[in-house]
Design goal:
Largest sheet of chain A: 3 strands, antiparallel
Oligomer: heterodimer
Number of strands of chain A: 3
Strand order of the largest sheet of chain A: 1-3-2
Number of strands of chain B: 0
Structural class of chain B: mainly alpha
Structural class of chain A: alpha+beta
Helix content of chain B: over 70%
Distance between the termini of chain B: 105 Å
Shape of chain B: rod-shaped
Largest interface: A-B, 27 and 33 residues
């Protein structure tokens, strides 16, 4: 994966994680599995787990711990109210940037 | 899916996993507080155990653990990720800092070392070619005045070249072989020229 592609994916990490967690409460490795199933959104654990810790620290994600059938306790994440607001902001910004890039790539210069 | 607990894993395998987790923790230790590091490492540990539990084997082996490790990002990946994901502005690591040399005029620094080497070679040519040649010509002409004039001029020129070579080579010492050549030749020639000049002065005074 080239540097540009890598940087692009890292730039949308927060949006991708919030979008997944918005659907249902889930845990870290499940988030990674769902992202890796999406073409172009293959984010690995060294990207996702620090992002999850940061999003939880700033209050966008709420965390609860539950015993796991395999290994140590699992941390389950869900969106807080701030997290939902943040997701809406990012989604709006994403649509704006995406729309502009689409237009640019079709040759529609201002 | 088998239920995998720390008790299911042998002490050696748990030690192997702990070592991996400790390495990740060390990658994060400079920039993240302990609480966040614990969360991140805990997630990795949880993932390792989940991947191990999905292997339908009766007993987990060392090879199974290593296979899981191969599927994970290397611990070094957390260094780069940590820099991107932290909110604070991190001080640049030394490898990102622009080296001091780049802040100066790069072409001048490159030319300095090369010039030093060239001046050193000129001084060397002066010492081993021009000076003996001038002396031979003076002997053939039978002219003491020519000998003194030519040799003194060449010696002074050689001294000036050597000093210039030494200064330039020391200044551009980091770039390749030329400054090193300049330092060696200039210091040798400078010593030689000073010796010859001293001899000439002594001879002239007699």
């Amino acid at each position: 994966m080239g540097i540009w592609e890598s940087q692009l994916r890292k730039g949308i990490t927060e949006l991708a994680i919030l979008a997944i967690v918005a659907k249902e409460e889930t845990y870290g490795y499940r988030i990674i599995e769902q992202l890796q199933a999406l073409d172009g959104l293959s984010l690995s654990e060294s990207t996702v787990y620090p992002a999850l810790a940061r999003l939880a620290r700033v209050g966008l994600l709420a965390v609860r711990t539950e015993a796991s059938p395999a290994g140590p306790n699992r941390r389950y994440y869900c969106l807080t109210l701030s997290g939902r607001r943040r997701l809406e902001e990012l989604e709006t910004e994403w649509q704006r940037v995406f729309g502009s890039m689409q237009s640019l790539l079709k040759g529609n210069l201002p | 899916m088998m239920t995998l607990t720390p008790a299911t894993l042998s002490g050696m395998l748990q030690t192997l996993i702990d070592a991996r987790l400790d390495t990740i923790d060390r990658m994060l230790i400079e920039h993240l507080p302990r609480s966040q590091r614990i969360e991140i490492v805990g997630e990795v540990e949880s993932q390792i155990h989940e991947l191990l539990s999905r292997q339908n084997t009766a007993e987990i082996t060392r090879e199974d653990v290593l296979n899981v490790f191969r599927r994970l990002d290397p611990p070094e990946a957390y260094l780069e990720e940590d820099r991107i994901n932290t909110d604070s502005v991190l001080p640049r690591r030394n490898r990102d800092c622009v080296p001091e040399e780049r802040n100066s005029l790069p072409s001048l620094r490159h030319g300095r070392g090369w010039l030093g080497g060239m001046f050193g070679l000129c001084a060397l040519a002066d010492a081993i070619l021009l000076l003996p040649l001038a002396w031979i010509v003076a002997v053939l002409l039978g002219s003491d005045e020519f000998a003194y004039f030519a040799c003194t001029s060449l010696i002074l020129l050689g001294i000036a070249s050597s000093i210039a070579a030494l200064v330039l080579s020391v200044g551009g010492r980091r770039e390749g072989m030329m400054p090193i050549i300049g330092i060696i030749t200039s210091s040798s020639c400078l010593s030689l020229f000073l010796l010859v000049l001293t001899y000439f002065i002594t001879f002239a005074m007699q």
